[in-house]
Amino acid sequence: MSALGVAAAVRSGEVRAVDVVEEYLARIETRNGELNAFNLVMADEARAAAAAVDACVAAGDDPGPLAGVPVALKDNMCTQGIATTCSSKILEGWEPPYDATVVARLAAAGAVAVGKTNLDEFAMGSSTENSAFGPTRNPLDTDRVPGGSSGGSAAAVAADLAAISLGSDTGGSIRQPAAFCGVVGMKPTYGAVSRYGLIAFGSSLDQIGPFSTSVADSAAVLEVIGGHDPFDSTSIDAPAFDLRSVLGRGVDGMRIGILRELSGGIGSVDGISPDVQARAAAAAEALEAAGARVQEVSVPSATLGLSAYYLVAPAEASSNLSRFDGVRFGLRVDAPTTGEMMTATRTAGFGPEVKRRIMLGTYALSAGYYDAFYGKALKVRTLMLAEFASAYEQVDLLLTPTAPTTAFRLGERTADPMTMYVNDVCTIPSNLTGHPGISVPFGVGDDGMPVGIQLLGPALSEPTIYQAAAVLEASAPHPGGKEGR
Question: Would residue 116 show up in a list of annotated catalytic residues for this protein?
Fold first, then answer.
């Protein structure tokens, strides 16, 4: 049953929220040992929240648009009194004194949190293999990765261990795992969803968004978690989106641009596999058949996104993660002096990928190198904003593959960071610009694993994106291989 289906059944009294939650907790008990999607299962808290929803229904009150819907939360979002680890040893034993805004808004809408999901440590990775608690496995093929860094959240929804989940997207960490696991993943406009209570990786890049099994469920969740938040200084002062009302409008007359530099072929970035290119071409044809006007569009600076990102993001991470020093949060390794204590704590607490990015970011910000590296990356970011703005004067939305390949095998790329980083080549540009993007499943590759298609739009174009995403979803190949209509 879809998340909206669960909510409708609970609100009408057809089913009880406590029964829904028990069903999901039983599935988690059965499969999480194999998948490692959850770092923590909140069974007692979920049962209590579900009982409160049922009491609200019994009293004749409306518990909210997501009544009784089981939701999984990426373990970098603060939950009051409940461990929040970022899948890192350095936050061992830390329990936040408050809820993240998105967590509070989900609860107010009647959703029931069932657990905290695994991720690449501090959201730094593309495979969920960098977790201090071990890798998460793709539920469609447990020899493969679920993508990252929000791999646990994607896997939880794909395996039906949660009806919906939340992830964070700094360079593609919602959209890429959504593509690998065959679910819908949405990165909203920067500032459209509050980051208050999200443990920061790259503050100018991070954005929270939903995973779901359908475009309609995704829209419903974004309506709940979006909107202005005075606790977040970067929050856009605008009301939450109205998204579900646009899902049936179609794409007749809509202008869709195939982004040349991120779609394979001549002039494109390297590494986009032929089977993924074929699915992207089929998606463009499906939108054209539904009435959209499709054309090729060029954004030359999109090919520079990966290089710029791996200067901007580590630089921000090196600043943000300096707070984890053994004094205020989590792990503390005692040593004779304060400096030695901090060094010992960080050595024991941070994993190899986090250390790699902290060192890279610190180097890029250091005297004598700032202008050559970080400053130049910011200039590329400005150029990218200008070129995407020009592209959106020609078209309403852009279409690309979400990831260059389908899900790869566990351990296949861990020894080569550069090969791993290329997984985000299609998703990173919209983090640098702050623009929204969605990944919608659209058939499978030659290996039978899902392929995600990405729709990108200018700032606050979420209604247009969802409008087109609904058509893309309806046109996607079914398991039997036929196109939906």
Answer: no
